[in-house]
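pls design
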């Protein structure tokens, strides 16, 4: 008896499905592409978060530098190497030449245009301001170690937040009675390792200018990121002595 195969039967036999190997390969390719895409999204999001954190810290640092620049530009009677406890209103303008003129000074004192309580004279009536580099907890931010502190004796003292260098603004707000105030000008995430002031133009009739050079690190613990930075600006006096 002869077997008859109809076209419909032939069509059903010709329609084959995917094999197990083909399914495994396609699933693997899809998984790899998905993992790469998700990883790229997480990487971009992490980079954006770190960039925003750095930008916020840098903006705060720029604001501090801008505030310092405004005070210096409207100041007079510049003096290098002084502290708020040792200076008086009778500064004599001098170059920042201690210990070497090429190395600048770690502090700068000046007289602002603001009047002082208890000082009747207009010429010496400005508030005395000192900008200097300081470290917390008796730490020397210019060196790798700390002094007079049990908390800074570990090998990781440079990472200790108390050892981070800060730019401090000290202001004498009154002569009678003496009154002083200190303000930290840098955010806690910033470690200032070097602050130099270069004063030029101390001759008769010259217009003084101050070069401020700052270098340090931005340490973001939460983002596990540490990046160095360097800033420099030149400020000229707007009012002559």
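designed seq:
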């Amino acid at each position: 008896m002869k077997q008859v195969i109809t076209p419909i039967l032939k069509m059903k036999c010709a329609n084959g499905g995917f094999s197990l190997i083909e399914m495994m390969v396609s699933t693997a390719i899809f998984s790899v592409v998905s993992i790469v895409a998700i990883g790229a999204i997480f990487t971009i999001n992490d980079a954006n978060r770190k960039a925003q954190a750095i930008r916020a810290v840098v903006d705060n640092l720029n604001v501090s530098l801008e505030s310092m620049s405004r005070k210096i530009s409207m100041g007079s009677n510049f003096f290098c190497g002084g502290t708020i406890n040792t200076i008086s209103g009778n500064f004599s303008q001098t170059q920042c030449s201690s210990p070497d003129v090429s190395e600048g000074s770690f502090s700068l004192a000046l007289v602002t245009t603001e009047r002082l309580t208890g000082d009747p004279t207009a010429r010496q009536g400005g508030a005395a301001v000192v900008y200097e580099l300081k470290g917390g907890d008796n730490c020397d931010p210019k060196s790798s170690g700390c002094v007079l502190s049990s908390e800074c004796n570990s090998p990781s003292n440079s990472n200790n937040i108390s050892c981070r260098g800060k730019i401090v603004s000290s202001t004498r707000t009154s002569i009678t009675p003496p009154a002083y105030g200190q303000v930290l000008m840098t955010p806690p995430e910033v470690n200032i390792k070097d602050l130099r002031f270069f004063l030029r133009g101390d001759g008769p009739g010259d217009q003084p200018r101050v070069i401020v050079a700052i270098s340090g690190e931005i340490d973001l613990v939460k983002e596990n990121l540490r990046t160095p930075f360097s800033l420099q600006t030149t400020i000229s006096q707007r009012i002559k002595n």
